[in-house]
Each structure stands twice: as structure tokens, then as C-alpha cells.
Write a structure and sequence with these properties.
88 residues, elongated, alpha+beta
């Protein structure tokens, strides 16, 4: 089975949200079979920051959606968006 690399952008609820706390909770939130490769905090505008998260998973049905939903359920997360996706 092929592997897929996915880059997610996580937006916090507001400028007062502790993005580092979200970053630390990611590894425990993703479903089994999904490997977190890295994460990076990026400035958006006016003090708002986003979190870019790179993961690798099997190219099987449901993994992408379940990972996106798991990330969206983290406390203080406003939205999760798939930025890039590609086969490895």
C-alpha cells in the first residue's frame, strides 16, 4: 500500500489561543497509523498564528477524513484545512 504525505493548516479560535498547546496535543490526537512528521507555527496577520502540520499515512479510504476530524476536535481549534497532499 502506498503512503501519502499531507500538510494541514490548523487555525486557532483567536489571537489569545495558545498555539503551542495545540501543537503539543497533535501527536496524541491523530488516529493510529498516522505519523506526525513535523509542525510549524506561522504568523498570519494582526497577531493571529496558524499551525502547519505534516503527517504521513497509508493511502487507504478514511484516513484523511478521520485525521482531519481528530485535529478539528482539539481544544481551541477553529478550523482544519488540507493544504497539500501527495503520494510518497
Amino acid at each position: 500500500m502506498a503512503k501519502v504525505a499531507v500538510l494541514f493548516r490548523i487555525m486557532p479560535r483567536g489571537v489569545e489561543t495558545d498555539v503551542r498547546a495545540i501543537q503539543q496535543a497533535i501527536a496524541g490526537a491523530v488516529p493510529a497509523g498516522v505519523t506526525v512528521r513535523g509542525s510549524q507555527i506561522r504568523d498570519v496577520a494582526f497577531g493571529l498564528k496558524s499551525l502547519l502540520v505534516s503527517v504521513v499515512m497509508d493511502d487507504a479510504g478514511g484516513f484523511l477524513e478521520s485525521t482531519e476530524h481528530a485535529l478539528a476536535k482539539l481544544p481551541e481549534v477553529e478550523s482544519v484545512e488540507v493544504m497539500e497532499e501527495g503520494l510518497l
